[in-house]
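Q: What does the assembled structure look like for these inputs?
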Amino acid sequence: MTRLPVPVPLRWADLDAYGHVNNVAMLRLLEEARIAAFWRHPEEQDEPWPTAVLDGGPGAATHTFVASTEIEYLLALGYHREPVTVEMWLGHLGGASIDVCYQLTTGAGSERLVYVQARTTLVLVDAASGRPRRITPEERAVWLPYLEVPVAMRRRPS
Amino acid sequence: MTRLPVPVPLRWADLDAYGHVNNVAMLRLLEEARIAAFWRHPEEQDEPWPTAVLDGGPGAATHTFVASTEIEYLLALGYHREPVTVEMWLGHLGGASIDVCYQLTTGAGSERLVYVQARTTLVLVDAASGRPRRITPEERAVWLPYLEVPVAMRRRPS
Amino acid sequence: MTRLPVPVPLRWADLDAYGHVNNVAMLRLLEEARIAAFWRHPEEQDEPWPTAVLDGGPGAATHTFVASTEIEYLLALGYHREPVTVEMWLGHLGGASIDVCYQLTTGAGSERLVYVQARTTLVLVDAASGRPRRITPEERAVWLPYLEVPVAMRRRPS
Amino acid sequence: MTRLPVPVPLRWADLDAYGHVNNVAMLRLLEEARIAAFWRHPEEQDEPWPTAVLDGGPGAATHTFVASTEIEYLLALGYHREPVTVEMWLGHLGGASIDVCYQLTTGAGSERLVYVQARTTLVLVDAASGRPRRITPEERAVWLPYLEVPVAMRRRPS
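A:
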């Protein structure tokens, strides 16, 4: 099981009036982790994550669009000065799209807690034509080690 | 088909570097519509929505917690000075939880466009005990007219 | 005294744990009012404000940069379903910069309340050269009617 | 010269369409630094900053209200994976209020760059009475070492 464990610092502004990280802010945390893990930043020589092969920013040749997101809130998350860990992997590696899976956690081993789990479907779009473009062999090669069983959503029994 | 059509104004700060409403900001727009339609605001004599029977704010006897959200992005949304319309209804009315369904739209009739569709599962929690509490008959009576077939997610064929 | 009275709707997400509009969110409200009043939006035939002569967005020939902001918080602002009014005028009309002055208010006449007052200095920058560019005679003509005494900051006596 | 150098991580969501940290987001970064340096967090045994003696959160006996802020933007700030440093000190230590001064920087020594400088006036308010309350001798003792000449605003020559 190979996952990308991306540390993401919280902010006080993420908390709502209940003193917990707001449900929309949670999605922002996952987005920050995904951008850190998948986007290449031109101003940096070394990327900490081998998966960071997509150009970020509006001037890039490839745009990534979020097609859908599913998120489950399992535990309320209060303020932590230490970053939380967003564990990421791929639940699907399609022709022009990928599913990014997430578990937002603190602790390790028997003290590991999962606060949120989610899946985002991303589509790669050619910036010039505005149409989906195929994942390249190079992209596939660096992402394949992180392909795993998709996150198991609990969903309410009907 | 009875839906609550809640107008929600956009902000420039909702736009990302592509000039579209950011995918996380979309969830914020749905949250604003949901709060307008379901929360009672003590400082107001008249609520515009009959469904607004839940006390808002941290001092309330009932807290509402988001258990899960699923959202699909169908069309990119640029800036509009006129508010968009978030159409809402209930896709499920359980013992202690409800599913709120949404379509974020502009236009009407043959010019109606759906940019986003989503579902949020909310759990009613007794603030004192911290445990789920049952939906009251009064709440059920005002919400029942808005119970409808859940939003049909497109989901990628496997 | 000629002011631009721009209505700005609040959001629940603007509130902090005290139930008041957060101090940083206040600056966001002023920004929304300023963009509405000074930016021309290509997708709209008619601009509601005669002062809206600056192209918005990153592809525009002129960028506007915020050089400084001063803001005073006079009254706490709770949630209002009705938009608040951001009254704006120019406190300075320089060679390449303008000072936008603001009072964020509710009510009118003897019931008018001022919650926040502020000043923002904006510099017009030529997008191609990255250097400040002079205000054109056309811009000066539409803005001059809104030139007024700058907002009087209270500032703590030393 | 004694300053509190608080590291603050950026987020991609702080950037605007120009690829720079948005001017309102800058104020959010300063707020995060201020909260880290001045608020005591009950869930933590050790505070990294000796100045963190104010109770945070809405249940606290003392509320801190922002009375005013002045901020100058000196350099545009692009994305940095490494945290920026918000250097903080007190420019004024009054009876019931303090002025927090900030310089947001990267680098050190001859490579130190200042992107933003600002001042925030905070008032301590007794939560029960809603009225300003005096700074205690204990608070004054821990804050006094950080009292320094206020940040020198450039302000446009008239």
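Chain D touches chain A through 22 residues (CB under 8 Å).
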